[in-house]
From TrEMBL:
<dbReference type="GO" id="GO:0004175">
    <property type="term" value="F:endopeptidase activity"/>
</dbReference>
<keyword id="KW-0645">Protease</keyword>
<keyword id="KW-1133">Transmembrane helix</keyword>
<feature type="transmembrane region" description="Helical">
    <location>
        <begin position="29"/>
        <end position="46"/>
    </location>
</feature>
<dbReference type="GO" id="GO:0080120">
    <property type="term" value="P:CAAX-box protein maturation"/>
</dbReference>
<protein>
    <submittedName>
        <fullName>CAAX amino terminal protease family</fullName>
    </submittedName>
</protein>
<feature type="transmembrane region" description="Helical">
    <location>
        <begin position="58"/>
        <end position="79"/>
    </location>
</feature>
<keyword id="KW-0378">Hydrolase</keyword>
<feature type="transmembrane region" description="Helical">
    <location>
        <begin position="175"/>
        <end position="196"/>
    </location>
</feature>
<keyword id="KW-0812">Transmembrane</keyword>
<feature type="transmembrane region" description="Helical">
    <location>
        <begin position="94"/>
        <end position="115"/>
    </location>
</feature>
<feature type="transmembrane region" description="Helical">
    <location>
        <begin position="5"/>
        <end position="23"/>
    </location>
</feature>
<feature type="domain" description="CAAX prenyl protease 2/Lysostaphin resistance protein A-like">
    <location>
        <begin position="105"/>
        <end position="187"/>
    </location>
</feature>
<feature type="transmembrane region" description="Helical">
    <location>
        <begin position="136"/>
        <end position="169"/>
    </location>
</feature>
<dbReference type="GO" id="GO:0006508">
    <property type="term" value="P:proteolysis"/>
</dbReference>
<dbReference type="InterPro" id="IPR003675">
    <property type="entry name" value="Rce1/LyrA-like_dom"/>
</dbReference>
<dbReference type="Pfam" id="PF02517">
    <property type="entry name" value="Rce1-like"/>
</dbReference>
């Protein structure tokens, strides 16, 4: 187990500050604020050699598995949308989807968000700080990802982030950050661009 540094503590706290500004202060420009926030986290993470080393190669089978995981995750959310509607919580779900405008810029920004989040959440936080330095199982990483969304005061979003985090953390652990980035981006496209159902 390696020693936790001031940089590590700062990088654990920073998403809470950025998510607050993204979800509360600049929520009317959500996609731009989120793209900026995760770019800050991702770029800082990618300056670390130990994060860049976590990008394992991803062959054709790895890509197919990543696509399959993204599709499974989409259908988990499709079922979750049905359940949330039955519970009268569809307004919470629709609020989240309504934060992303249609257009080519959104397509680019959604991909950027998915890739940069993986560099930070599954790269720096999960595989370097939690696993390598704290010797904690990857199963704890989704808790950080889920609970940081509590700044939105949207319970559905917190639960959704916990579920997404579990899928993405598993993928990063088993197949690497390229695979988890593929899952993240494809799933985001399915959810926000309504590519499937």
């Amino acid at each position: 187990m390696r020693k936790i540094t001031i940089f590590d503590v700062f990088m654990i706290i920073l998403p809470w500050i950025l998510w607050y500004f993204t979800f509360d202060v600049f929520y009317s420009h959500f996609i731009y604020a989120m793209a900026l926030s995760v770019s800050v986290l991702g770029i800082i993470s990618l300056t670390r050699k130990e994060v860049r080393e976590k990008y394992k190669s991803c062959n054709a089978l790895c890509i197919l598995l990543a696509l399959l995981i993204a599709i499974i995750l989409y259908f988990v959310f499709y079922g979750g949308n049905i359940v949330s509607a039955k519970l009268g919580l569809e307004g919470e779900v629709l609020y989240v989807y309504g934060l992303v405008p249609k257009g080519l810029l959104s397509i680019f920004l959604l991909a950027l968000i998915g890739v940069m989040e993986e560099a930070y959440w599954r790269g720096l936080l999960q595989q370097v700080i939690l696993e390598k330095k704290l010797n904690v199982s990857w199963l704890f990483a989704p808790l950080f990802y889920g609970f940081v969304h509590s700044v939105s005061l949207n319970l559905i979003l917190v639960v959704a982030a916990l579920i997404v985090g579990l899928f993405l953390s598993f993928t990063a652990e088993k197949f690497g950050l390229i695979a988890s980035s593929i899952v993240h981006v494809v799933w985001i496209y399915f959810m926000f661009l309504k590519i499937l159902l």
